[in-house]
Structure formats: C-alpha cells, structure tokens
Specification:
6-stranded mixed sheet; alpha/beta; Rossmann fold; 272 residues; single chain; 2 domains
Amino acid sequence: MTTRVAIVGGTGKLGGIIREVVEQEDAYEVVSVLSSRSELSELDGADLVIDASTPAVSIDVVRAAVERGINVLVGTSGWSAERIALIRPLVEAAGTGAVFIPNFSLGSVLGSALAAAAAPFFPSIEIVEAHRETKIDSPSGTAVRTAELIAAARADVGPVESPHVDQRARGQQVASVPIHSLRRPGVMARQETILAGAGESLTIAHDTIEPALAYAPGIRLALAHAQTARGVVVGLDSFLDIGIRRAHAEPAAVPPVEEGGVPGQVARATGA
C-alpha cells in the first residue's frame, strides 16, 4: 500500500531534499507540495504530513495535521522541549503521532549523544553553532536539542557552570547551557560542544558538508517510523540503538532558561 505524503515547505532547501528522498521510495507518493503560504486544507487526503516550513508556520501545520488525524513528521527548526510540551496534549488526545527531528544527519545525532554522555563529567559546557546567513532561527534546533539532552544527563549533578550569563555576549541559555549562534556565508552547518573541567577540555564537533548526502539516510529512517508513531517522538536517536543510554534521557522535563560513516558530513572529537 502506498503512503500518500503532503510536504509543507517542499519548495525550500530542506523540503526539496526531503521531497527528492520521498520520491525515490516506492512505498510513498507525494500528493501535494505546499509552501509556507499555502492553505492547510491542501493536507486533506494525505496519510502523512511532512513539515519543513518555518518556525512561525510549523505549529499551525502540526495542529492542522493532528486535527485531521494525520501523523506528522517535523523537520522544521525551532521546536524546543517547552514548545513541544504545548502540542503534546493535542497529539495524545487525537491518538496520532508527531515526530520531531531537529537534525536528519546521523553524525549530528551521534555528536549530541556523545555530548550528553560526557556531560556529567564536566562542569563547564557551551555550544557554538554556525549556519548560513539565510537561516531564520537561532539558536538552531540541533543546538537546543543538544542542550536539553545535556541537561537531562546532568539531572543528578545539577546545571552546568555558566558564569556571567547576565551579559548578552555570553550567549543564550537553554536548559542552563550557553549557546552561541553564528550566521555567515560560506558555511552549511557546524556545531561544537565544548566541555571543560580542571586542566582539560573536550570538543565534540560536527560539520555538514553536503546536506543532500548527509540527510538522506536519516530522512529514510524517520519516514520508516513516522506513519506508525503514536504520541510525541523527539529526535532521530529515538530510532537508533546508539548504546549510550544517558543520551536517551527524556529532555521534555527540563525547563529552558529563557542538522556515522555517512557521506556529506564530518564528525570528530578532540581533547586538549
């Protein structure tokens, strides 16, 4: 049986990559491609909605899908644990599924998991993320997800040490973790998580070089689970047996203070 898919934001960069992957899969048929300005009534008749729109539009897309009893796969950035908590009762009451993927890159997911696994052992942790100048939101959804996983992993030891955060130049705190966002030409996506303790530091870095190559395996993995998901599912790591249990802590309970051997990406950890 073919799954009928509606893609919101299908004319954008991420949406275009998702659309290409979906069209390559025999089990799926793209029945409508919407822009961020399209009427959401165009979702009618779909078996699965994929949202790759904008942060301002995304919440309306999710609500429209859930109200129609359609599962939704969300690739749009800007969904913090706090924002997801607002939509969770609606999803659960409808008996549908909403899968939120901050980053479709397997390397990025592994980087966040490694950062969360190391988090309890370092008192100081900060995130520096960089994207092209056209990215609308900051901090990135990946950075927010990483910070929430770090905070969940540190539940027994407390928040990270982040002095002088009253100064704006110290970054935006998410779940106690300072995040610094760079928006500049010449970069696709890069994230560094810098963990420091007495006499040492550990940097976990991930670079996306070719998004279409880097995201395709994660998109296929998310597609395989999105239509049958029930309730709210957050993160591609929900479908991976990474083997780092601490990285799978549920971040939704963490209140915020206020994109492995895959072509197209480079991940590395360095100690100094």
